[in-house]
Specification:
seven-stranded mixed beta sheet; 832 residues; globular
C-alpha cells in the first residue's frame, strides 16, 4: 500500500510538472502571434486541434508508463512525455490565437453604414469625462478638449446586433460630456477600425485589435441636442462622486491625485505627459499591478499590526486561527475596491485577476514554485483576456514580474536588508525594462533610474496614506466633521509634498538628453534581453561567448546603415497627409512633415525620428515643405524642435557646413534650381521665380535623380499648375510619381500623366477619407497608362529602393513586416 501511495504521489507531481510545461508552451506560442504574418486557415486549424489532442494523449500515456531508458541511460519515457506535452501546449496556443483572431476579424460593419450618418444605441464603457474633466487630452482647433470614449453598441439604426461591439468615438462638440456607464443615443459617422501602418511608432491598428474595437468615428450630436432630446441617460457611479469629492478639496496637484487615486488621467496636460515620458515614470501614474501590490502590502501590514495588538492586549486568551486566509481575503476585498474606483482598466483587471489566482493557489494549499505560479498566472491572463498580448501593458506587466522573480532567485534579495533589496531591484528593473520600452515606444529615459529610485518608494509610502485620508475626508464630512477636517489638513500636506516631488521630476527632465528616441527590430531587442539575462546568470562555461553572440545583432543594428551604394525613398503612412524621407547611407532629407491632428503631429514627433535612428540615417541635410497646408506642413514645429535638440547636422556642399537647409515655395524652392546631394540631383521645377504665394498650386515640385531613375514629388498642384509646368517644358519624366494632390479629381490630367510617364504611382491618403482620394477617374487614367498604383491606406508605409538592378517597392502591409491584424483594405469606391 505504501508503494502504491508513493506511486500515485509521484504520478501527481509528474502530471503537475507536465501541466506547467503545457501551459508555458501554450503561452509562449500565443505571445509569438504578435509577429505572425497571417492566421492559419480553418483546415489547418482542424489539423492543429487533432494533433494537440494526440500529443497530449501520448504524453499522458508516457507519463503513466514505467520508466524506460535509451542506450545512453537517459530517461526516454520522461523526455518523450515532456516533449509531447510541450508540443500539445504550443499547438493549443496556436489554435486559441487563431480562434480569437478570426472572431475579431469576422465582424464586419455593414457597407451602407460606413461613413454615413447613423444612430448608435449603446453604453459608455471607457473614456468620456469625470467631474466635467474631458478625456484623453485631445484638442480642437480652438484649444478645447474633445471627449474621446469607447461605446459598447447594441444597435445601429434599426439593426439590432447579435452581440454588443465596442467602438471608439470622439465628439465634435467639446462641451458634450458623458460618463462611464451612461446609456446614450448618438448620431455618428463610423468606419471599420483601421490605423496607419508604419515600421516604427505607435500602431493604432494593433491597439484597436488589443481592445476589441471594431469601428471608429466621430459623434455629430452636440451637447444641446443631447440635453434637449434626452439622448443621455446618466448612471453616475461611486467613482464619479469620489472624483467630485477629490476636486472639492481644491488641491494644487488635483490632476495628479486624480490619476493616482482614481485612475483618471484625463486632466493631465501635454506638459505633464511630456514630463512623465522624459523621466520614465509612466508606470507610476498609471494604475496597474504595482499599485495593487502597494495596497495589498499595506493591508497585510495593517492586519499584522492589528493581530499583534490583539495578542498584546489579550495574550493567549484569544486564539486566532487561519489568520493567513483571513488576511488574504481582506487583501482581495481591498484591491477589488481599489480596482473598481480606478475604472477597471485592462491592466488593473489583469493584475487583480492574477492576484486572485495566486491567492486561490495559496488557499488550496498547492505546493508550487514561483516560476510555476508565474506560468499559471500568465496562462490565465492569455485565456481570460484574449488579444491583450498585442498591447504594450501586457509585456510591461509580465516583464516586471518575471524580472522580480528572476532577480530574487539569482541574488536571494529577500534575504538581504530591505533597503539594499529595494535599490538593487529598482536599478535592475530600470535597466531590464529598457529593451521592452524601446521595443514598444521607441523611447527610453536616461534619468529614469534616478527618478524611479526616489519616486517608487515615496509613492509606495504616500499612496496608502493618501487613500486613507481621502476616504475619511470624503465619507466623514457629516458624521465626524473633526476627523474629516484633520484628513483634509493631511491631504493638503501631501499636496505640498507632491509639489516638491514634481519639482524634482522637472529638474531631472531638464537634464540634457534625459530621454532619447530610437527604434530597433523586435529580434534585436529580444537578443539584447537575452544578453542581459545571460550576463547576470551564475558563471558557466561559454557565458562570455553567449553574451557576445546575443549582442551582435544590437551592435550590427546601431553601426550599420542601409547599403550606401543604393538610395531609398520612404513614403510614410501619414493618413490624409504626406511625409517622405530620402536616405543614402548615414544621411537623409525630408520632403513634407505629415499632418497635425488636434495639436499633435505623430509622424514628425515620433515616426520620422525613430525610423531614421533605426536605419542609422543620423544626419538630416535638408527639409522641403511643399506648401503650408497642415496635411503637409503640420509637423514643421515638431520636426524643427527635434532637429535643433537631437541632431548634429553637417550641411550640404552648397551650404558650407551650415545647419539643416529648409525649402518652401517662399524660400529656395524655385523653378530651375538644383543641387547635388550624395551623388543625386535634387531639382526644383515649380514655382517660378518671384512667387509670393504658399498654396496648392504653388507647391514645391521636386525631383530626385541618380541619372538612371527619377522620382517626382509634385505636392498638391492641380490642373492649372500642371498645364503651366508642361508649357514651360520644366516637367520631367519620372519612374516613380507621388500623385499630385493625393489623387484628387482636380489633378493628374491626361497631359500631365503622358508627360511624366510613371511606372509607379503612390497616393498618400487616409482610409475612407471624406474626399474619396484618389478619385476613381484619376485611378483609371493611370491604370489605362499601365502604371502600378499604391495607396498608403491599403499598403501602409512604402519603401522604394533604387539600385543598378532596378526599383524595388516594398509595402508594409504586404511585405515581410505584414502582421495578421494589419488587414489590407483597398478603397471601397475604387472597387465599385
Amino acid at each position: 500500500m505504501a508503494s502504491l501511495a508513493m506511486y500515485h504521489y509521484c504520478l501527481r507531481r509528474l502530471m503537475a510538472n507536465r501541466i506547467t510545461i503545457w501551459c508555458g508552451s501554450f503561452c509562449a506560442c500565443a505571445i509569438t502571434s504578435v509577429l505572425w504574418p497571417a492566421l492559419p486557415s480553418y483546415p489547418i486549424q482542424f489539423g492543429i486541434g487533432i494533433a494537440a489532442i494526440i500529443f497530449a494523449a501520448f504524453g499522458y500515456v508516457m507519463t503513466r508508463k514505467a520508466p524506460t531508458f535509451n542506450v545512453r541511460g537517459h530517461l526516454y519515457s520522461e523526455h518523450c512525455a515532456t516533449l509531447s506535452f510541450a508540443m500539445s501546449g504550443a499547438l493549443a496556443g496556436t489554435l486559441w490565437v487563431a480562434s480569437v483572431g478570426y472572431s475579431y476579424l469576422s465582424w464586419q460593419l455593414p457597407e451602407d453604414k460606413i461613413q454615413q450618418d447613423v444612430t448608435l444605441f449603446g453604453q459608455v464603457v471607457a473614456g468620456g469625462c469625470l467631474n466635467s474633466v474631458k478625456s484623453d487630452e485631445e484638442l480642437s482647433g480652438d484649444g478645447q478638449k474633445k471627449p474621446v470614449l469607447t461605446l459598447r453598441v447594441s444597435r445601429i439604426d434599426s439593426l439590432k446586433l447579435n452581440a454588443s461591439v465596442d467602438m471608439r468615438l470622439y465628439a465634435l462638440d467639446p462641451q458634450l460630456c458623458v460618463h462611464t456607464n451612461d446609456k446614450v443615443t448618438f448620431t455618428a459617422r463610423i468606419k471599420p477600425a483601421y490605423g496607419n501602418a508604419n515600421p516604427v511608432g505607435f500602431s493604432q491598428q494593433r491597439y484597436l485589435t488589443s481592445q476589441h474595437i471594431v469601428a471608429t468615428g466621430y459623434i455629430k450630436t452636440n451637447a444641446k441636442q443631447a440635453f434637449t432630446e434626452n439622448r443621455i441617460s446618466h448612471h453616475h457611479g461611486l467613482r464619479f462622486y469620489l472624483s467630485e469629492s477629490l476636486s472639492d478639496l481644491a488641491l494644487v496637484n488635483n490632476a495628479w491625485f486624480q490619476a493616482l487615486l482614481l485612475g483618471n488621467k484625463q486632466a493631465l496636460s501635454n506638459e505633464d505627459w511630456m514630463l512623465i515620458q522624459r523621466t520614465g515614470t509612466a508606470h507610476v501614474f498609471s494604475i496597474s499591478g504595482m499599485h495593487l501590490g502597494i495596497i495589498a502590502g499595506a493591508v497585510l501590514l495593517m492586519t499584522r499590526a492589528l493581530f499583534l495588538l490583539v495578542v498584546r492586549l489579550f495574550g493567549q486568551r484569544i486564539v486566532l486561527s487561519n489568520t493567513r486566509d483571513a488576511n488574504l481575503c481582506l487583501v482581495v476585498l481591498a484591491t477589488l475596491l481599489y480596482a473598481y474606483v480606478s475604472g477597471l482598466s485592462l491592466p488593473v483587471v489583469r493584475a487583480f485577476s492574477m492576484l486572485v489566482i495566486g491567492c486561490a493557489m495559496v488557499w488550496s494549499r498547492l505546493a508550487t514554485t514561483p516560476s510555476a505560479l508565474l506560468v499559471f498566472m500568465l496562462f490565465f491572463c492569455v485565456v481570460l483576456f484574449p488579444l491583450s498580448w498585442l498591447h504594450a501593458s501586457f509585456y510591461l506587466s509580465i516583464g516586471a514580474v518575471f524580472i522580480i522573480i528572476f532577480l530574487n532567485w539569482r541574488f536571494q534579495l529577500f534575504q538581504l536588508p530591505w533597503y539594499y533589496s529595494i535599490i538593487v531591484l529598482q536599478v535592475a528593473l530600470s535597466i531590464f525594462m529598457v529593451p521592452i520600452t524601446l521595443l514598444w515606444f521607441g523611447q527610453a529615459s536616461l534619468t529614469g533610474i534616478v527618478a524611479n529610485l526616489v519616486l517608487v518608494p515615496l509613492i509606495s509610502l504616500l499612496l496608502p496614506i493618501a487613500i486613507a485620508l481621502f476616504i475619511i475626508a470624503a465619507c466623514c464630512d457629516t458624521l465626524l466633521p473633526s476627523a474629516a477636517g484633520w484628513a483634509m489638513q493631511g491631504m493638503w500636506l501631501l499636496d505640498d509634498a507632491f509639489s516638491q516631488l514634481l519639482r524634482f521630476l522637472r529638474f531631472l527632465s531638464d537634464w540634457p538628453h534625459s530621454a532619447f528616441l530610437v527604434s530597433f527590430e523586435p529580434q534585436v531587442m529580444m537578443a539584447l534581453c537575452f544578453a542581459l539575462i545571460i550576463a547576470i546568470l551564475p558563471t558557466f562555461y561559454g557565458q562570455k561567448r553567449g553574451i557576445l553572440l546575443c549582442l551582435f545583432p544590437f551592435i550590427f543594428a546601431i553601426s550599420t546603415p542601409y547599403n550606401p551604394t543604393r538610395w531609398y525613398v520612404h513614403v510614410f503612412d501619414a493618413g490624409q497627409g504626406t511625409a517622405i524621407a530620402l536616405t543614402r547611407g548615414h544621411r537623409a532629407g525630408i520632403i513634407d512633415t505629415g499632418p497635425v491632428y488636434q495639436g499633435k503631429a505623430p509622424i514628425a514627433e515620433s515616426v520620422i525620428p525613430q525610423y531614421l535612428a533605426q536605419i542609422n540615417a543620423n544626419d538630416v541635410d535638408f527639409v522641403v515643405v511643399s506648401h503650408s497646408d497642415t496635411d503637409h506642413a503640420g509637423g514643421v514645429d515638431a520636426l524643427s524642435t527635434w532637429l535643433s535638440q537631437t541632431m548634429t547636422n553637417k550641411a550640404l556642399p552648397r551650404a558650407q557646413s551650415g545647419p539643416t537647409q529648409w525649402f518652401s515655395p517662399l524660400n529656395g524652392c524655385t523653378q530651375g534650381e538644383a543641387f547635388e546631394w550624395q551623388g543625386l540631383i535634387v531639382s526644383f521645377h515649380w514655382p517660378q521665380a518671384g512667387n509670393h504665394v504658399n498654396s496648392n498650386n504653388t507647391s514645391c515640385v521636386v525631383s530626385i535623380s541618380d541619372g538612371h531613375y527619377r522620382i517626382l514629388l509634385p505636392g498638391d498642384i492641380e490642373r492649372e499648375a500642371e498645364y503651366a509646368l508642361i508649357k514651360t517644358t520644366q516637367l520631367p519624366s519620372a519612374n516613380v510619381l507621388i500623385a499630385p494632390h493625393h489623387g484628387s479629381k482636380t489633378s493628374s490630367t491626361q497631359a500631365f500623366i503622358t508627360s511624366v510617364s510613371p511606372q509607379y504611382v503612390i497616393y498618400t491618403q487616409g482610409y475612407e477619407n471624406r474626399w474619396q482620394f484618389p478619385s476613381k477617374k484619376v485611378y483609371q487614367r493611370y491604370e489605362a497608362f499601365g502604371a502600378r498604383q499604391f495607396t498608403t491606406s491599403e499598403f501602409g508605409y512604402i519603401r522604394l529602393e533604387f539600385s543598378s538592378k532596378g526599383i524595388i517597392v516594398e509595402p508594409t502591409r504586404s511585405g515581410s513586416t505584414k502582421r495578421w491584424f494589419m488587414v489590407n483594405k483597398p478603397p471601397r469606391y475604387l472597387q465599385d
